[in-house]
Fold each of these.
Amino acid sequence: MAHPFASTLASHQQPLLIAQVNHLPIVADFARRLDVVGIVNRLVPVQMEVQPGILVLGMVLDTLSGRSPLYHLEQAFSEADRTLLFGEALPAGYFSDDNAGRVLDHLFEAGTQGIFSALSVAAMDHFALSAKHVHFDTTSVNVYGDYPNAEAESAAAHITYGYSKDKRPDLKQFVLSLLCVEGGIPIVGKHEDGNASDKAINHTVLGEVVRHLREHGVAEDAFIYVADSAMVTEENLARAPRFITRLPATYNACEHAILAAIDADRWTEVGAIAATPPTKARPAAIYRVSEQAVELYGSPYRAIVVHSSAHDKRRQKRLERELAASLTAITAQAKACESKTLCCRADAEVAAQEAMAQRSAYHRLQVSVVERPRYGRGRPKRDGVRTPIAMAYGLSAEILEDQPAIARRRQMAGCFVLLSNVPSIGDDGYDAELILRTYKEQYAIERNFSFLKDDQIVNALFLKRPERIEALGLILLIALLIWRLMEQVMRSTLKTTESTVPGWDNKPTARPSAYMLTWTFRGVMVLCIGQTRQLHQPLSATQQAFLRALQIPEERFLYPRSSA
């Protein structure tokens, strides 16, 4: 049976364009909602025949296409329906390597932070994002190359050797810091010195976050700053607005709070809080909390002691390793003790006391003096009785476990402490459980780092200049912003309508991921003759369900809309 489009082709005698668009019309629609092209064109003045905003949109689409970004960009778009994606008929040469490189240079000159800030403001306004919880974290990004002048203070991304969170100390790196709001949506992204400490970065960010959110219309007392344990310094705690962080185990206050919670034995059962359903391979962690009070640097804070069943299993295994090491150490001490021979009991008693004073982490010795008679040469008497000619003394050591210490350590296993100055009462009060749930939202920023480091998104960075790396970082951040916005819109719509979409294995889910979206629309093709378009195959019921969750009509796959 002939395809219905064949008659149109025959009548018009025009070349037929078959483009596999997959999910890219959806990405283009979200970019239009953000006015990516308009904002970039306004902030990046160029003397080029191409629009920088169109090139940026092209690089974002390419980044989210699933192939290696910025690799043969012109060739990739030569096979695409450029009118559908960009709203105007652009030649493939528009996306040449020279044009892309020059636009990256102009992005850096215009200021990547200012461009992304304008886009994040548009995202918060258009999508009504909540900034009640602001999450911050950093990660290291490896680069391949020498970059001999990249450590100068005037350089863009300060590329140097530093502590590698990817366990690659052999590579130079820069540090990327992210500030995110609900759903892990980034609103600030910065390139930091590759050797910068998280504590110093937190100190700088705390000074900027209030100003930045004020530009978004968010008052200082209207948000809670959530960060990891690197935030806990005297200067940062004094400077921070309302915050939730993790108290480092290196602080004595951490252990004191855990022991106080164990002694009080008053826990609030929270249960499982993971948004995703558990599996056999990954069972849900079960939580319980107990609130204590601590003082740091002369100021009082709330300490939420959290016990996690997942942490408990890991730390119990660690404790078993510590017990084995303790037993090995005390066994060596026992052998050394029992190898001694002394000439008088008094010396033996002293040696026994000294031996009992020694101990390992979880074991001690119970040492007693034993007589070791010495006999003369020759055979014993016929009755078998031997008379010693002298008496020596040795030690007998028994290894004892420190049961109270082990029991306490087992109770402490699985516990960590959250630190906060958010009040527990009042209209904006947070009880211990809500403190925990808010902190656990920090996982979203870790997902963002996984996105930015995913080999399917960006391969190992190897660009000629740090300026190009910073500009590419802006492209990746814009792509991440759109990626998370698509996810947030789907989940918000499904929550409001109390509905679901078919997820993996067609199991209904109310929390579809952006990756699930891209997988659902793989293989979507559009046939185009002139200005007439038709889907190669009708969208499936699952694809239509996703479009409803995205609040996008099916026509976005057929009718071009201007990107500006």
Note: Residues 133 and 438 are 8 Å apart (CA to CA).
Amino acid sequence: MHDPTTALRYRPDIDGLRAVAVLPVVFYHLGTRYTSGGFIGVDVFFVISGYLITGLIATRIAAGTYSVVDFYVRRARRIFPALFVMFGLCALFALGFVLSSDLAAFGDSLAAASLFVSNIYFYLTTDYFALDRQMQPLLHTWSLAVEEQFYIFFPLILMAIHRYAAGAEKAALATLAVLSFAISVWLVQTDAAAGFYLLHARAWELVLGALLAIRAVPPVSSRRLADALGLIGLLLIAGSVLLYTDETPFPGVAALAPCIGTALVIHSGAAGTSIVARALSIGAVRFVGLISYSLYLWHWPVIVFGQYLALWYGWNPEAKPHKLAALILSLAFAAFSWQVVEKPFRQGALRFGRPATLAGSAAIMAMLVAVAGVIQPLSARLWPIPAEEREMLAVQDTKASVYMRLGTCFLDGSYEFSQFDRAGCLQMAGNRPNVLLLGDSQAADLRLGLGTVNPDINFLQATASGCKPIGDLHGRPGCTALMRFMIEEFIPAHRLDAILLAGRWRPSDLAQLRATAEKLKPHADRLIVLGPRLEYRSNLPWILAVSALRQDPGMLDRLQVGQQKDTDRALRHQFEGSGIHYFSLYRAICSEGTCRQLDERGTPLSFDYGHFTESGSIFVARQLRQAGLLDARAPQARSN
């Protein structure tokens, strides 16, 4: 199949490449500057894994010594000990410090992660709001699940190729990679969550490494070429980290850059003499690579639980000292885990035989699933929450997708533009004023309130998650297609009584928002910009409940996002004297230095950090009505 000595030779540069993979992920999750695309570190890991594991499997298949059982035992020794320790300590911490109301999702994810199907679990449970309101310290295990699922099937595929199509393994694996890549590209356009989480959309990245392992690519012929290819590979990885953002459609075509970059670094460093290979072999870089698995395991639970504790005490989890502490703790846990757990179980005193390894692994997995089932009821029994706070916390379970009209007039990442209900969402009325609501999710949650308070108005709705109605459209294809259709086709072709532009505005949006508003103003009697709203650093119902439990009402002020007030002021000034109306949602909630959190019946205005509940939507819609901006007799522009 290939040279049996090639894939088994230790390569210190690949340990260094692991550092290049894990550090961007850690800094991305910490929210540091210049690592907006750090999530591509997982893709770097996939290519490395495909290369190393395939080299091992193919070598033994070619030598006639491969054993499926031995392979799984080695995987168990490599993966399970540190993973199971992390699971256990996370469960203990959650039981002791996390509200029982926050533990349902954790228990479900623990069971899924223990069975290596957490990627499927997160795919099935992901919606636009779920991860904002659920504590998910095991979210990062989705990538481990993808790898373990891959290695259930891949050795069998290699064995079948060796037995029935010897000599065609390169073509077979290349075909597999192309098919998986095509699926990835298609899913990014049609079901972004599936493209991100599921094996068939990610397999090509591991197979890319496998193709290198079986020498499907000719060896590099010169030192100079190796230097050039290695540097190009590093630049592709670094460029992805620097330039990609959460709005980049991913994986799909965008994943080519980091994956090809990783392949170039691996391939060019085969001789160990290239500039990049020598740099990656430096001791300090290699050490980070050696602890990279434990660092990947620990950094995310440390960040999530750290943020939880910070919010519990009313601190800002985005503060630099908090992030620095999380980084230091992650590195400390990783070094300890590598030294005390990983090494002894792989090659030290705790390296058990095959039967003990397999039986012990199965027993611990079963125990973890059992723990996942009892952790929430046990927590509720040990640390009961008073009824009033339980009712407050239950508001987080608001089914906003219903009144936001998800899947028809509001598109999230699961829907294409073709699924937008043009007939139902953009139906013009001949006997009532026609008002268009255009924007992202912070427009969609206003629709119910506007319709309830203004039954005499026909509201049209065109909204998409994470996609603001501004001129420089970027984001998911379904979202940008909707906004482009509305701005360039529908609005110029229809005369509207009013257009409401709403979105999660940031200071960087001001110029483009003004330009878009000016462009749309001739097509409506009134153009109304709805400003930013009050936001919190966690879910408002959770903060209200915790502040009551801790008897700390000051939490509500400390956990407000202060930027919102400044952005509101800047937008108000932006539209003064422009002929464009401006309505301040922030001032509708906050006046005279006091911000309102509850409606007249004591229901929180928001169910998460800032999206309105039904009563919150009605509350602000009443104030918009009182301001007279939807009154056909209000011709002159004004601000509120």
Note: Residues 271 and 613 are 61 Å apart (CA to CA).
Amino acid sequence: MTRAPLRPLPRILDARAKGQNPDAIERENLAARNDSLRDTSRARAEKRLILLALCFFASFTVIGARMGTLAASTPAEPRAAAGGSEISAQRADIVDRMGRILATNMLTYSLYAQTNDLVDPVQTAAALAAIFPEMNAKDLARRFTDGRSFLWLRKVLSPEQKQKVHEIGDPGLHFGPREMRLYPNGTLAAHILGGTAFGAEGVNSAQVIGTAGLEAALEPRLSDPAQSATPVTLSIDLTLQAAVEEVLGAGMTTLHAKGAAAILMDVHTGEVLAMSSLPDFDPNDRGSVVQTKDQGENPLFNRAVQGVYELGSTFKIFAVAQALDLGLVTPDTQIDTAQPYRVAGFPIGEFDGHNYGPTKSVSDVIAVSSNIGAAHIGLMIGGERQKAFLRSLGLLSPPKIELIEAPSAKSQFQKPWGEIATVTASYGHGVSTSLLNLAAAYATIGNGGLKVTPTLLHSETHAIGPRVITEATAKACVTMMRRVVTDGTATFANVPGYQVAGKTGTADKAKTIGRGYQKGHVINTFASVFPASAPQYVLVVTLDDPVETAGPKPLRTAGYTAVPVAAEIIRRIGPLMDLRPLLDEASLPALNTPPKQPLAQE
């Protein structure tokens, strides 16, 4: 910038020539310069004020708009930054055959702390301990102040707990949204459903993974996001399941049993309509179950599938079925039942010292449950053929069903399969198998001889299994089992109108360590099909160490324990299945006539 001189020489010379004071020229020029500087500064200040005003206006406009947006949005908790890929929390529902919910998802919240943001760690720890009894205030306060920045507090909160934590008001406490698995029916069908746990976790979501039962076995299907909107439909009927569990539980309590199991199956499709194992658990809180060293007393242990037992005289019908199919006997063939009887140096006796005389027909062998008669039939068949037949029925293999626990239930039998093994297997000793395998084998007899593969999944179509026995043999076996109920060891199962046919089994419990049996401890089983005229369903009931104490002396056999429980289940579920009673004059008991007492007990 060029500045004008305060004392320009031409004007100074001109002023002196005229006799004027030259200093006045300097003062005049200085005043003009000051006025010019003042005007320039004023203009610059005005521009700056205008620019500052515009900045303030823009800032307040942005702030106001943001406040309006926040006021109109849904409130949300602050979220911690989490790296990695997004966690998939979708999981398909599980429903029964009628579409009723068995397992679904529920939105809940987790609780975590950003410790650097805690205003009063000690006070917050005390407040949390008052809400959650399992938390220790001193330990929590120590963890809040030990230098870590992030701390999980609870993986799942109830709405009430979330509200109480919210009322603490500490900004360091945060809620993370997540889905959890919900079983609205509690313990109902617990061993079928199994349970879930959290897998990969973040503050904003958590992966739900199956840990047991169908939840684990069907993990790929249930966790597939493409199929999460389509529920998995099971074969079980919630109403029938509830009825079976209620009656089975009452029977277990009344008969002082350590455990119990029951399976209801369609003989044609193999679909399991109900399956119960007691004691049970709540899959909503599976992690809190106290497990025992004895698997038989563990609530998580599925007796119907995982348990392998010697099922006693329920096996006798298999020996008879094979002998009939081979043409070795007819229902009227007389079988040697004379005592004493020894095989390979071992005595073979009847239960409780019964003596059934020198001979019995094949039909009578089943009705009275003769061990010696079954042993003779087994020897007629021979060990190799007997073993092959039991294997064809699925009795020597792990049960085939959609449960993660099924492959572990390996059948146990004597090796080599010699003469004594042939004899004992013919009446259900020396062979341990799953109750589910027994139910499937009885379904094979009930449907006319076609092998059945059990399933817990409902379908409109089912593959037809290979033929194991002829239709005539299967029909003859059902007729003989009907005699067991009308005149033999299971007369308490003679439910009017439902034509129950079945076979009892009372087997000594094998020792858990070493060989031999536990004296005075039994597994009681009743395997049945109904109605006998055209079988549709199989029901198998087993009780662990039951005792009937209503009479003058304790009774431990299946006819007085498992059979009445099965009868009450059939009486309860028959109307629920729209199974029309087949009433005829012969099947109706006379007025005030008590049930016929079992003919004999094994």
Note: The longest helix spans residues 23-72.
Amino acid sequence: MAKKSEGKSKNIAISRYGWITLFLSLIFIAVLVCIFKIKYAEGPMWRELGKQETVKKDREIRSNRGNIYADDGRLLATSEPLYGIYVDFMAEGIKKDTLMKYVTPLSQMLAKKFPDRNAAQYKRVILDGWDLSRKELAEIERNRANGSNKKVKVRSRYVRIIRPDINYIDLKELLTFPFFNQRSNRSGLFTEEKTMRLKPFGRLAGRTVGSIYKDMDAGGASGLELKYDSILKGIPGLKTRQRVQGRWIDIVLEEPTDGWDIKTTLNVDFQDMAEKALYDKLVETNAESGCAIVMEVATGEIKAITNLDRMSSGVYAEGNPNAFSYMSEPGSTFKTVSLMVALEDGVVTPDDQFLVGDGLFEYKGRVVRDHDWRKGKDKGYVTVSQGMYSSLNVVVSKMILKGYENNPQKFVQHIHDLGLTKKIEWDVPLQGKEGTSVIRFPGDKSNPWSKTTLPWMSFGYETQIPPIYMLMFYNGIANNGKMIKPFLTKAFLRDGKTEEEFETEVINPSLCSEKTLNEVRDILRGVVTDGTGKAVNSDLFPIAGKTGTAMIAARGGYEGYYVSFCGYFPSDNPQYTCFVGIRRPQGSPSGGLMPGAVFKKIAEGIYTKNSVVTPVSAPKDTIHSLIPAVKNGSLKNTEIVLNRIKQTYNFSGGKVDWIKAGSSINGILLDNNDSVKPGQVPSVIGMGARDAIYLLEMEGLKVNPIGSGKVKQQSIAPGTKATRGANITIELN
């Protein structure tokens, strides 16, 4: 009986073992099926999903945009990385007790470094972020416990701590602050890097240098930034981001190629002079807009170019490229073109005379008027030279009619041969017909020639020549007859080495014969000494040029005036050519008194800066009245200027950097500016804007300058403790 019972138990055990084996075998087979399915059938899908979770492909590495430099290497535009500062309050390593221990000293240091918030406000931002993270985590846990799939909008992972973006130096300092000096997973601190385009000289040459779009990837928006966008922006690189042990790391596949730098012909000091001189005159005359261009005679390099428009707010700022886009009738500056053509063709000599009478001349039903015809004075006969000095339309129109009335094609063809209508590629992006000359030609149906076009064209009407072409023509006169293209871009650089350099481009190697050139130059000098350009004459060096006043065509008639002056200096040894144009000034329009005054101010400023010629001597009894006004400021720079112009001075101070300046019967007196002390607001009264702003910003102050000239008032008293980030207004006169 016992044996039968044992046999039965053994059979049951074997049976159970068989079922277990079968069950495990089925599980094993199922696992194999799943492995096969996952590896082969669903393999591509899971591998792709895995890559998405651990690898992010084809992420672009932005290349560094090239810099734009002035002629001496000073930066006009550069790129700087800026950082947005955030805290992820859900970071796993943040400990409440550590945060509470350091939140007060952290807030105090943040307020001291970034004073747009005080310490209490910074503390509130941090604690609010922490409290918000706890609430959001609690809500996430409740949803999970309830089996809800409802998503919680998480805001505590991206709490901005500092309002403005900060630079790399400030970021490095920030990482030394209490709590933030820990590893990022313990502090929650993270940054969002941006690249900003900075202009160290602010708005200086703003329209010419140009701008880029807010999204840097979109590239240049205007000026040189747009014209040479492909050169400046470089070639982006490529990287992947891979998750390794819970951390994302970058794997570079292709290194980016940084953009090339651009060296321009612009001179920062000349540009500053031109902008200030033009700005002041526009404000004085309440004009619509203006432009000023300075060109180096021998090379064609544009040393300064400013374009100012009156904005809706009433202030003047860089707007349209006026030097290229003033497509209006040039007026009397064009008379020099007519004069050169007539002299070269032998139509007249400088001494030939024409009857002017009372300044009215009727031709085929249309009356040519001189600017002073209302006086009714009978001038009788006037020579060609005198007619140019006084800018008489009657003389110039009769001169051209004498030679070309029966053959106007010859006159216009000669203008074309000069190169004034040649299509030229400029350094700034333009639209339509901007930057080109439009001169009528007999028989041209697209721009019909009328029976009175010839005399009116002779004195600058019924034609369109932008300022840049007039500058180029007058520079040709200054450059011994060789007309060259004005240009802004001097070289492309890579890693400080020149990759491509631009040379002077000759438009016309010889405008006219030497005899004609000398006659034209003598007459242009006479315009300044004895004619409409007397206001331009300088006691320091000779200037030659021509005034221009033209009515502006609008809505089938004329509205307002365009006044200009174009010339070169010193006229006996030309170094620079300059054009100044002012559009719709208020008051009595005058090419000599308005743009001529700007020209003179620019020219004398350049003379003082460069010492182009030897200063003229003055009688001993007038020496004191000729002592230059010296601003307070940098001792080193003041001494350089005074030594350059051979001006004696007395310095009673010791080894200092900043001085006060004054004068007496014995000359210029320099003394130590003892208000310049670390941690205190210095006295900047009597300084120029550049020195004043530099000193104040060195103490961490934010400067708001008003006006131009010397500082006459500052909103925070000298000697006051300097609070970093505080605003200070300086009023200049």
Note: The CA atoms of residues 477 and 517 lie 7 Å apart.
